[in-house]
Amino acid sequence: MTAPPMAQRPSKLLLIALVISGLLALAVLAILLISGGPFSFGLSALMGFAPLPVLLAAVLSIDRLEPEPKLHLIFAFAWGAGVAVLLAIAFTEAGQSLFERAGYGTRIVNEVGAVLLAPVIEEALKGSALLLLLRRKREIDGLTDGIVYASMCALGFATVENIGYYMMAFDESGTAGVMQLFVLRGLIDPLGHPIYTSLIGVGVAYALTRRNPARYAAIPLGYLGAVFLHGLWNGAATLAPRTLLIPAYLVIMLVLIGLIVVSVRERQHLVAKMAAYLPGYESTHLVTPDDVRMLTTLSRRKQARSWARSRGLGRAMSDYQQAATELTMLHLRAEREGMDPDEFAARRDALLAAMAYARRW
Question: Exposed end of the chain (fewer CB within 10 Å): N or C?
């Protein structure tokens, strides 16, 4: 028996964009290696990648109820690490050269690049990954999805950017300089880029999941918010007095708290909707009251997967939980957006078939 499809097949365009982004990311790293030498690059790469596992786990943990397709997440990360980094360097240097030709000194040019050009250019390039994902509308079901995709892209960007900065610090101050910069970028403010770009993700997700006339205004508003936060931090770190770093950091942390609140509230809303919709399928014998209790609690979901793994059914339980969650989200989309009855029935039946295939206990 062949398993029913659980998600959209990846498009050729997505695969092509993923390959191009990945190759460009490797090209940037190769250029850094050649320009800085093995030791400088190795130390900087170690510092750049060191916090990444923890940061990835933190980002993905907010999307545990309905995880996004791995290929889409990899694309977002690769886009940030490749396309966004390469174009950001090119556009920022081009912009700074214009100010140089206008007669401004080196200090002013560097400050303009850090405080104005970098936020405007980098957030536009990172946010463009979200716009590319607009074609895969069914993969963005809420604001949390926008935050996850934006954060993945921003983490890819930040990782490669940090390697470059650590190499510059090594050239100027040696190992001590790298460690000092790592404390700031890798320990104190490792979530800076994900927080900035998440505002764009929220804007794009809002535009996709709402039906009010002004919903698309959320995209430029999210972009402006990202540019503001990015410029605020860069300005506080670049311009005197440096005492502004603490207020800027507090503002960014408040935004982070707001993003967490958004994700938690969406999760609570989804859980409540599961409890409302799934009992309606008890007559199919694919959902029982015990299943509903299990599906609406993260701890019980985890316990169910552990129980299933001990019996060789771990993948089946994960597929069942995912299909049941997507069935709830299908109802939410129909409730929110309206849907052709035949299309709704086709998607519903496909998800029920996936649940039937997975349910072997």
Answer: N
